[in-house]
Fold this protein.
Amino acid sequence: MSFALIFLSLITIDPRYHTLDEIARELDSIAQHYPEITHLDTIAYSTTDSLPVFAMKISDNANIEEDEPAVLFVACHHAEEILGVEICMYMINDLVHNYGVDSLITHWINNREIWIIPLLNPEGHSIVMKGIDTTWRKNKHDNNNNGQFDPDFDGVDLNRNYDFYWSEGGSSSPPSEYYRGPSPFSENESRALAELARNQHFVFCNSYHSARTGLGEVIYFPWHGACGYPPDFTFLREIADSMAKRIVNDAGNGTYNALPGWSVDGKARNFLYGVYGTFAYTVEVSTTCIQPGWMVDDICERNLAGAYYLLERVEGSGISGHIYDQKTDEPLSAEVIISGYYDPELPARRSDEEFGRFIRLLTAGTYNLEIKKNGYETVYLDGIEVEQDRLTELNIHLRRITDESSIRKKKGIEVIPNPTYGYILIQLKDTNINQLKIYDSAGRLTKIFKNPETRIVWQCDDCSKRIVPNGIYWVIGYEDDKRTVIKTIVLHN
Ligand SMILES: [Zn+2]
């Protein structure tokens, strides 16, 4: 009788799907064959069974960190969603086999850092692959601490465990399939992904899932929650739409669709975007979690079109650049604000520490930037043009605030000359100044600002928009019958 029960309860998974051992062997073999362009890492050991979580980096000079945009593909937060594992393995093989053969793939490998985590949840995956429970979702976290695996009580939903609005998502009840864990980042698996993201500053992440019920063949992006839309919503959606329409559906009569994810909670997608600004997407692969083996190659092949779109889009419309210390040329991690696309509630979007590099993906148009760092003068770059399908490159030097004489302050007016960019910033604080006039050293009226805003960028031009010569200028603020006079110096490059 027990034999019959076991026989009935074990469902065989098609051998087309990889087991963890097969993944380990295949990645190892690829790393040996392609040492120049691959780097195989074990980023974690699973929370309960200590199974390895592999990450493969594919890039030229794969063993060193280069100043190249990084993109992440990750699969199998949820154990039963095994199609994503196959997409990742398929992609790894396709990339390495076509290096030096296909010009686009060669370009991407030479100019990107492509990180792929084929199996984030190996211990949950093993329950599915052994046929013990092919609908298992969580890892095997020993929730009741009894030293054994209790399917009715154990496990954490890894995709509700990230430290971003953690308490808003999933369930607080251990038996739930959506149990978010005892605390944010209680699980080795989610913590390892977050750590990788902190180091790599991913521009994009595709996290592969499948829908057990509900909508499949959908790409979710951040977010449309109770707190509204995120600042990059327009850009996130444009890219999600472009990716979705490149992936043909299983039926062959249409494509995937893009939708904003409703909840703002401890999912990887929300965490990666919310904390690091990564454009993070959830791809719900196919129409159900486990498809027959004969369908797998075809599903993978069609999904590559979406993944590869991201690899290309990294160089599309947007602004990228480096931020340096003006004196030492050292790279700086500084905050990059795009006016109108900024949420002060979210952590600052910063350039990376190693190279001072930032990438902000946008659509074609004109943008105003503000570059901020404590101890440095803020730089305002107004009217930066972004073209279709091209990254605008900027190199920005920040000047350390050491020489107080360069900034002049008097009764609510602050004048900050910025020789690097040929403008002077005039800031008004707690004052009722209703007119500003600028005179040159010979006493000629050069420029007038009526009803000035609190922040005025004087482009060192006169009333006819001609650039003025270098020299001393007088900024005079008028408030009723009172005048405040400050000297400044114009010094073009
Ligand atoms: Zn899922």
